[in-house]
């Protein structure tokens, strides 16, 4: 299996698929020109509806992350890695701002970040 989906998350499954594919690209596990699994294959692996994966792929194509090769499938296009990193940082900033508004102390946020980076989670 390529990655897992959190079915209990409030984030829509298609969004999770998009995020995971972007992270695979950022980590270097997926490179420009490499094929991603077919819609049917990924849907079966993840146990989700075909339309969910199709929507994720369609949006990744619109964002320029994937491109369609007729008769062959979806491949990773030349991706602006810095743009994806900037998007992730923006999301992180929003979450940290939410934590601050919720009264979560900075020390707790830093501890969580350290745990994640060390893999202590």
What would you say this structure looks like, in words?
The protein contains five helices and two strands. The chain has 121 residues and is mainly alpha-helical. Helix 1 crosses helix 3 and helix 2 packs across helix 3. The chain starts with 12 loop residues before the first helix and ends with a helix. It comes from Thermotoga maritima (strain ATCC 43589 / DSM 3109 / JCM 10099 / NBRC 100826 / MSB8). Keywords: DNA-binding, Transcription, Transcription regulation. GO terms for molecular function: DNA binding; DNA-binding transcription factor activity.
Structural class: mainly alpha
Give the CATH architecture of the largest domain: Orthogonal Bundle
* Integer count of domains: 2
Largest sheet: 2 strands, antiparallel
Gyration radius, to the nearest Å? 16 Å
User: Mind telling me the CATH superfamily name of the largest domain?
Assistant: Winged helix-like DNA-binding domain superfamily/Winged helix DNA-binding domain
Widest beta sheet: strand line-up: 1-2
At the fold tier of CATH, the topology name of the largest domain is: Arc Repressor Mutant, subunit A
Strand residues, percent: 5-15%
Q: Given the C-alpha coordinates, what overall shape results? A: elongated
Counted by DSSP, the helix tally is: 5
Pfam families: GntR
GO molecular function: DNA binding; DNA-binding transcription factor activity
Keywords: DNA-binding, Transcription, Transcription regulation
Organism: Thermotoga maritima (strain ATCC 43589 / DSM 3109 / JCM 10099 / NBRC 100826 / MSB8)
């Amino acid at each position: 299996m390529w990655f897992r989906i959190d079915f209990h998350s409030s984030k829509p499954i298609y969004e999770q698929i998009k995020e995971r594919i972007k992270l695979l690209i950022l980590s270097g596990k997926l490179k420009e020109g490499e094929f991603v699994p077919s819609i049917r294959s990924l849907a079966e692996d993840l146990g989700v509806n075909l339309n969910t994966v199709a929507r994720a792929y369609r949006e990744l194509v619109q964002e320029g992350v994937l491109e369609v090769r007729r008769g062959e499938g979806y491949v990773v296009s030349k991706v602006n890695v810095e743009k994806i990193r900037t998007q992730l940082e923006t999301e992180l900033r929003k979450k940290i701002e939410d934590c601050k508004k919720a009264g979560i102390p900075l020390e707790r946020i830093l501890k969580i970040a350290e745990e994640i980076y060390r893999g202590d989670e």
